[in-house]
Amino acid sequence: MEFPISQIVKSPTVALKVGSLEFQAGEIGEQFETYHVHESVLIRSSHYFKQVLNSKFQEGIKREISLSSPVDTPKACELFLEFAYYGKCLPLQTASNPLLLYGEAYLFAEKIQATEFKDYIYQRARAEAEQSFRDLDFLFKTVKPTDLLSQARVELLETWASLIEMIYEGTYDNKDEILKAATPSDAETLFKDHLNNMKSWLEPSKIDLFRGLLSQISAQYPLVIACSPRIQKLIRCTPDFAADMFNHQLRPAVEEIEQAQIFAVPHLYSVTRKKVRLVPE
User: Fold this and answer.
1) Residue 92 lies in a domain
2) Torsions phi, psi of 26, nearest 5?
3) How far is CA 200 from CA 172, 178, 179, 207, in A?
4) pLDDT band for position 281 (50/70/90)?
5) Domain BTB, which positions (predicted)?
6) Range with the lowest mean pLDDT among 176-180, 205-209, 215-219?
7) Containing H/E element for 165?
């Protein structure tokens, strides 16, 4: 998403203040980072900034925008600005935990409605998570809990638990609507139709992308996840996360039913919430 430099330099700049209120010595103080960003870059990269800067809001008139919610962190904003100017971004080499930083950036992208940046961060987070869990799975099978290398296992699982808390608290999906559509409304609903609805319910695109990433990998590595009491508690206390994990575990069973071609037999199946019954031809 690179922009011609000639268009960028002709654009006025906007003071973008990003940070939050912090307590210091018993007093509340504002801890902000200020970035002077070209207006054209903000407008093209974020629907939120486009609305603010193209309106008569005070922020647009003063050419100053302050973001101070919990998801507005300087590190996340810096990743966004790097992507907005260059079309790609990477955590600084000094970043101790890129996965957590990707989680922060994802929530920031959702807040400012930066669709391309959000998709990019999701792809980077998926690649990082898949590699990390492949390595962790190897360690789980070869390294004893008392070995020094087991520390990598502990750190990743702690990061994963923090991501689950962060993402499930800060994102939403339309699972309730999908579940309602997948639930048979009467006794005459055909089993095949119900199965198709269930397949729609299980589609990853139907839930938030980052939620799908967290639940899919958690379901893929159950023995590793079981090593973390904190994640086990989250499964019990976060219904959405538990349901998403179950969806990924259920998918192979749904595919197996479909591959068995049970619909080839001369029977029609009707499914209700309480029972399955055979319908005569």
Assistant:
1) yes
2) 80, 0
3) 18, 8, 9, 11
4) very low
5) 12-88
6) 176-180
7) helix 150-170
28 lies in a domain? yes
Of 220 and 135, the structure prediction assigns the larger pLDDT to 220
**Secondary structure of 231-243 in HEC code, one letter for each residue:** HHHHHHHCHHHHH
Q: 92: domain range?
A: 1-96+112-118
pLDDT at 142: 64
How many structural domains comprise the chain? 1
Which segment of 135-139, 201-205, 252-256 scores lowest on mean pLDDT?
201-205
User: How many CB atoms lie under 10 A from the CB of residue 109?
Assistant: 25
CATH number at residue 61: 3.30.710.10
Alpha helices in 171-278 (DSSP H): 175-182, 191-201, 209-220, 222-225, 229-237, 239-259
Query: CA-to-CA distance for 47 and 195, rounded, in angstroms?
Result: 38
Amino acid at site 120 = Y
* 91 Cα distance to chain centroid: 18
Q: Phi, psi (5° rounding) for residue 261?
A: 55, 50
What are the Cα distances from residue 151, in Å, to 145, 155, 221?
Answer: 8, 6, 18
Does residue 4 fall inside a structural domain?
yes
Measured CA to CA, the distance from residue 58 to residue 260 in angstroms comes to 62
From the list 227, 247, 207, 250, the residue with the least C-alpha distance to 133 is 227
**In-domain check, residue 249:** no
Q: Which of 31-45, 129-143, 213-227 has the lowest mean pLDDT?
A: 129-143
